[in-house]
Amino acid sequence: MKSARWPPLPGSPFAAIRSRGAPWSEDQLVALRAEGEALELELGDLLRGGAAVDAAEVQRAIAAWARHVGRFCPLTPELFAGLGQHYVAHPAFRARYEAIAPGLAVFLRDAIAVYCRRMGALVPPIVAPAGRPGVGRSLP
Asked: Alpha helices of the chain — where are they, by DSSP H?
């Protein structure tokens, strides 16, 4: 079952899982997809509500997102930080998250960077661009 919210990306977790005979049934994949979409919507709500990327409720949601993504592949803090950067750099991911809430791709990248730094990853500081949360300051 395809979701309009999941762009058909080469190498997407669901395509890779299906191609290698994943341990999940179609029903389990649908449930996993729904879980992921619920987390994305929660993060969009946090952004719209004005939460900072380092706020406790945002970091709890990012930790849940890390656990969710980690079900599909081994996930180190460095890989997770790279994935956050990919959410902004890849046009399909960026469009997906911007459709949920304007600014969500950047919000995710920055919140993931905070989370990964707290997990000990060497993630370079990100200076938020003009017009985005955290304007003119390096994120923690």
From this structure: 13-19, 26-48, 56-70, 77-89, 91-100, 104-118
